[in-house]
């Protein structure tokens, strides 16, 4: 989902892009990664690959670690060899998720899930291997037209359910992949220019809400009654992996690098909605 929007954003700028999916490049295979670097010699590498099945990671942590930890380490090693800048996409799950204030980029990490532990392993590998050219970009609550996500699920369920019970005790930042892709392009260019130092950045849309609040906004944008969405607690939807109660991220390092942080989430989803609706309900969207 993010990779597609990033590829599209770079294409609009006439950048030379090699977009390798999992079949084309196993990022945890050092030989294949070295071969790809030798052929393409990239100036900037953006790692959008990840094991994102949060619950499955609880029982398959070794497999998740191969993608989320070993893969970034392998990419970082080749970036060091070829002098490439690495932008590595990470997650809010590296934090405990019990914040009162937004997490700063240098806030202590304390993952509570296997997924969070594997993502933190990837961060540490990138920062240790590339202290001068490694950029970690944490994000959260991604949605877009190019893949399955909460917003598209709500669009689907609005047409199928009279009412929906949605969790209201988890707070975060819905983030449009188109906005994050554009921010990654800006960061990559600034990194090459030397104006964006290596280290951790937070790439989420501004403001915050709960899943319940996000679902109500989706219903509003659909022209449906938001009161059909009813609040419930995380306990009603018990899952193998604990979810962060509050993992709102601060954006100070982008601002310090002269890069405007991402806009408010409500503004973003309003602009994103026609494409999301067309992706989930192509016939009804066409009728509108």
Automatic annotation (TrEMBL):
Pathway involvement of the protein, from the record: Carbohydrate biosynthesis; dTDP-L-rhamnose biosynthesis
Keywords noted in UniProt: NADP, Oxidoreductase
EC numbers for this chain: 1.1.1.133
Superkingdom field: Bacteria
CDD domains recorded: dTDP_HR_like_SDR_e (cd05254)
Keyword Iron among UniProt keywords: no
Record-level Gene Ontology MF annotations: dTDP-4-dehydrorhamnose reductase activity
UniProt xrefs under SUPFAM superfamilies: NAD(P)-binding Rossmann-fold domains (SSF51735)
Entries under Pfam families matching the protein: RmlD_sub_bind (PF04321)
Database matches in InterPro entries: dTDP_dehydrorham_reduct, NAD(P)-bd_dom_sf, RmlD-like-bd
Domain RmlD-like substrate binding: 1-273
Function of the protein: Catalyzes the reduction of dTDP-6-deoxy-L-lyxo-4-hexulose to yield dTDP-L-rhamnose.
NCBIfam families linked: rmlD
Family to which this protein belongs: Belongs to the dTDP-4-dehydrorhamnose reductase family.
PANTHER family assigned to the protein according to its UniProt record, in alphabetical order: DTDP-4-DEHYDRORHAMNOSE REDUCTASE, METHIONINE ADENOSYLTRANSFERASE 2 SUBUNIT BETA
Protein's name in the database: dTDP-4-dehydrorhamnose reductase
Species whose genome carries this gene: Streptomyces castrisilvae
């Amino acid at each position: 989902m993010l990779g597609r929007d990033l590829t599209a954003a770079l294409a609009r700028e006439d950048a030379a892009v090699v977009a390798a999916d999992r079949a084309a490049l196993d990022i945890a295979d050092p030989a294949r990664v070295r071969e790809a670097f030798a052929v393409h010699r990239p100036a900037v590498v953006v790692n959008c690959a990840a094991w994102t099945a949060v619950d499955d990671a609880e029982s398959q942590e070794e497999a998740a670690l191969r993608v989320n930890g070993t893969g970034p380490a392998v990419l970082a090693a080749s970036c060091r060899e070829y002098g490439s800048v690495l932008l590595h996409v990470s997650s809010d799950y590296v934090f405990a998720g019990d914040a009162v204030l937004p997490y700063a980029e240098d806030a202590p990490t304390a993952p509570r899930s296997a997924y969070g532990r594997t993502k933190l392993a990837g961060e540490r590998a990138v920062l240790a291997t590339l202290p001068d050219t490694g950029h970690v970009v944490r994000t959260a609550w991604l949605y877009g037209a190019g893949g399955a996500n909460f917003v598209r699920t709500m669009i689907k369920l609005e047409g199928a359910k009279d009412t929906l019970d949605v969790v209201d005790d988890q707070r975060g930042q819905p983030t449009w992949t188109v906005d994050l892709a554009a921010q990654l392009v800006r960061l990559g260019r600034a990194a090459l220019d030397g104006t964006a130092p290596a280290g951790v950045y937070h790439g989420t849309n501004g403001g915050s809400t709960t899943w319940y609040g996000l679902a109500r906004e989706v219903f509003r944008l659909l022209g449906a009654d938001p009161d059909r969405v009813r609040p419930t607690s995380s306990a009603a939807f018990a899952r193998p992996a604990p979810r962060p109660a509050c993992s709102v991220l601060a954006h100070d390092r982008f601002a310090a690098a002269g890069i405007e942080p991402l806009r408010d989430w409500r503004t973003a989803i309003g602009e994103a909605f026609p494409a999301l609706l067309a992706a989930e309900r192509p016939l009804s969207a066409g009728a509108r």
